[in-house]
Amino acid sequence: MRRIYLDHSATTGVRKEVLDEMLPYFSEVYGNGSSQHSFGRDAMKAIDEARRKVAKAINAKPNEIYFTSGGTESDNWAIKGAIYANLERGKHIITSAIEHPAVMDSIKFLEKELGIEVTYLKVDGEGIISLEELERAIRPDTVLISVMAANNEMGAIEPIEEIGRIARARGIYFHTDAVQAIGAVDIDVEKMNIDMLSLSAHKFYGPKGVGVLYRRNGIRVKKFMNGGEQERNQRASTLNTSGIVGLGKAIELASENIDKNNEYLASLRDSFVEKLISRVDNIRFNGPKDMTKRLANNANFSFEFIEGESLLLRLDLDGIAVSSGSACSSAALEASYVLLATGVPIDIAHGSIRFSFGLENTMEDVDYTVDKVEKIVGDLRAMSPLFKRIDGGEFNV
Ligand code: PLP
Q1: What residues pair up with 150 in beta bridges, in sequence order?
Q2: Would the CB of 328 count as within 6 Å of ligand 1?
């Protein structure tokens, strides 16, 4: 059976060039990067090379790059670490209503544990925050602004350069979760006044379980992992040499090819969106309609009168992998809080699917998927009593 993977926002496969660079670091160069002998030095040399590649990709300094176990750890460390280290400065955080659970739950933890006060910025119908609302939300005791660079469900790209300018002018730390943005949006931490940034290798064709927290020098952040003195005594645990080497290669490839990759992905996505809208009725394209404000690989649709889960399972039977809501929360059959925040009605939000394209997809994959979605949506609606009544005119006044 043909299998088509359209869930690249959940994770990507490791690219061959990345894997080839990683392989020697499993059983040839296996020293502990912290050891003082040549085995350790060889590992540390490769780690530092990867550190330089990450720094170059986001215009940071190598000693501002801290390797972690992924996006979730980086988000937790940035948010909790900044608040715990700056309690005397205040107890107020500003964030958006559509953050990933790694940010949302870190903030909720602080609300509960420390009585931190939080302003959740609303988003407009396309998922973008308002800079005026951000300005109004700032208080004398605001310590941190954490707003994602791009949303994982409907691909909205947030105005992080403007947010950075506002935060810097008011002396407030600015953290951005750039897990979905790396390789898709040009990030320059200097130009954008970003103080902390989270990224994760598996979203840009690198390995799982390895990420980075960028921390501007001079920013006060409490140590999160206690133990050894790795990462300039800021993040304990033996460094994941092969993973870090893979992350370095993957971010180098992603940032060198950003325009070319975006152009290719957008051609697939745009063709998909156009074909689906022309062939399937009663659907809603969620997130930014202005494609320059949206990740090039993301298409999110709500299909009225059907459950997203039913569509997902039927597509899976046909070999097509998509997601309903974010992968992390898709086990819970709740309507997506991200789509609800953009004003999608709850019953329609339930029928939503994210299609996220990747570099190995082709135009044939697009056409095959459109055919299957059209057929399955037709079948599911034919079984839906609500759709029949509306289709038959009963509610159609
Ligand atoms: N932040 C965003 C926006 C994400 O999309 C994800 C993963 O889905 C994460 C954080 C968590 O990253 P990781 O899987 O590396 O822990």
Answers
A1: 157
A2: yes
Q: How far apart are CA 238 and CA 10, in angstroms?
A: 27
Of 19, 97, 328, 390, the catalytic one is: 328
Mutate to test the pocket of ligand 1, among 12, 72, 244 (most ligand atoms within 8 A of CB): 72
pTM over 0.70: yes
What letter does residue 179 receive in the DSSP assignment?
A: T
CA angle 296, 299, 303 (to 5 degrees): 170
* CA pair distance 227, 232, nearest whole angstrom: 12
Cα–Cα distance for residue pair 236/226, rounded to 1 Å: 6
CA of 339 to the centre of ligand 1 (A): 18
Residue 122 confidence (pLDDT) above 70: yes
For the question of residue 328 being annotated catalytic, the response is yes
Distance CA 151, CA 178 (A): 9
**Which has the closest alpha carbon to 183: 211, 208, 203?**
203
Q: For residue 308, how far is its CA from the centre of ligand 1 (angstroms)?
A: 22
Distance from residue 328's CA to the centre of ligand 1 (Å) = 8
- pLDDT (tens digit per residue) in 17-57: 999 999 999 999 999 999 999 999 999 999 999 999 999 99
Handedness of CA 187, 172, 154, 103 (dihedral sign): positive
Residue 325 pLDDT greater than 80, yes or no = no
71 lines ligand 1 (CB under 6 A): yes
Burial of 105 (0-12, 13-18, 19+ CB in 10 A): middle
242-284 pLDDT per residue, tens: 999 999 999 999 999 999 999 999 999 999 999 999 999 999 9
Helix (H) or strand (E) run with residue 11 in it: none
Cα(38) to centroid(ligand 1), Å: 35
Rg of the Cα atoms in the chain: 22
**Is the pLDDT score of 72 beyond 70?**
yes
